[in-house]
TrEMBL record:
Pfam families: Pkinase (PF00069). Keywords: Membrane, Signal, Transmembrane, Transmembrane helix. It is a single-pass membrane protein. Residues 1-136 form the Protein kinase domain. This is Protein kinase domain-containing protein. SUPFAM superfamilies: Protein kinase-like (PK-like) (SSF56112). Signal peptide: none annotated. One of its GO terms (molecular function) is ATP binding. It is found in: Membrane. Residues 179-201 are annotated as: Disordered. Transmembrane segments: none annotated. One of its GO terms (cellular component) is membrane. Its main location: membrane.
Amino acid sequence: MRGTRGYLAPEWIMSSAISDKADVYSYGLVLLEIVRGRKNSSIQTWSHSTKTSSSEGNAPSSSPSVLEHRLIYFPLFALEMHQQRRYLELADPRLEGRVTSEEVEKLVRIALCCVHEDPALRPSMAHVVGMLEGGLSLGEPRSESLNFLRFYAQRFIEESRMEGSTELKDLGLYPDINATSNSDAGVSYNPMSSQQLSGPR
């Protein structure tokens, strides 16, 4: 399975029976990459400065810029934005003004249905094609079968820390899976612009 990291269905890891639904899972991840225009997991770096107040009552001054590293795990972010119905934030920035929220919603909902943890909940590829072509109604992603994405994201961040250089030891995750969320999936959304999310190309 070399070269397929991040695309394997959960049943491969759990040594469960493998069916054609494993390919549906992989297709869902590829579909998310098409929506975003880049890989589903990547490390983004940006700098920010913190303001410090003077003990002498002077105006606050800015400290030197601090580099912050975050792992962007897009399937988790896509789930969060789906629950908030903020679909345009998921689209490739190069398509700004050329796609509608409804078009992005269609692809994201299909993709999330494809990556359900339970293979029985994933559509067949014939059903996927029907939804893409508009002949079948869109499925509704089930949050309870997508919570495993948080575990996958944590694994990515742990592996990145082990494989990365010293500056990645404090690598954080976006979205923050450890914070409290108002969504059903328990994923936290931290305000970040689409430019920060997409990063340099």
